[in-house]
Amino acid sequence: MPSSSDGDGKQIVLGVDVGGSNVKLLASDQTGRRRFKSGPKLGPAEMADGVLEAADGWRWDVVSIGIPAPVHAGKVVTEPANLGSGWVGFDLEAAFGKPTKVVNDAAMQAIGSYEGGRMLFLGLGTGLGSTVIADGIVEPLELAHLPFRKHTFEDYVGRRALEKRGKKKWKAAVFDTVEHLSAALEPDYIVLGGGEVRELDELPPKCRRGANENAFLGAFRLWDPEWATGVRLQSDT
């Protein structure tokens, strides 16, 4: 597989953000990200092949991949709810031929959004991603499918809910979700990320708006020894 280093001699990281609608990628020496369509039939081999095709002309040394599924010790342990099957047990490092770190996609964007203290990250996208980072300890969460009202949090704040119930009801559910989860987890601040955060013209209390680009900052930080000092993924212990 292609490899190189940037002008400063640092290793180049290929960041891959796997979502329910699109797979987005960016190398740490590039300025423009690339993407291709995802969806409920996308498996890991198809994802890897799609990334390698989309990244044609780029060179990299290591890979970071964010996947919308529970990840422990760098391995997907449950099939993603909004993608195809085959992720559990699939060797992504072998597929890319480079050292590869795999994390939950919300955790990757949370790492790129973190500014210290106790932060709750909520990713509003195809589903609902969630992560807490407390004093440098990254704790990926699976809050999307917890009971909420008559269904689950994801049923009210995911993209399908926005399309089905309309922006007004969806926004009210987002505010209600933030209130419930903030009361339970007591963060210093909350970052709302994901593609659907753009639909919010105002934010709930204690919230700030995240950016999808933070997923790639998180991907690069995973390989940055200076940033990673004192920071660890709870699932890796």
Summarize the structure in short.
Helix content is 29%, strand content 27%. With 237 residues, the chain is of the alpha/beta class.
Please, could you describe this protein's structure?
The two termini are 30 Å apart. This protein is α/β, with parallel strands linked by helices and 237 residues long. The strands form four sheets. A six-stranded mixed sheet has the order 14-13-8-9-10-15, sandwiched between helices. It has a five-stranded mixed sheet with strand order 3-2-1-4-7, with helices on both faces. The chain is globular and about 50 Å long. The chain has eight helices and 15 strands. It has a domain of 95 residues: ATPase, nucleotide binding domain (Nucleotidyltransferase, domain 5). It is 29% helix and 27% strand.
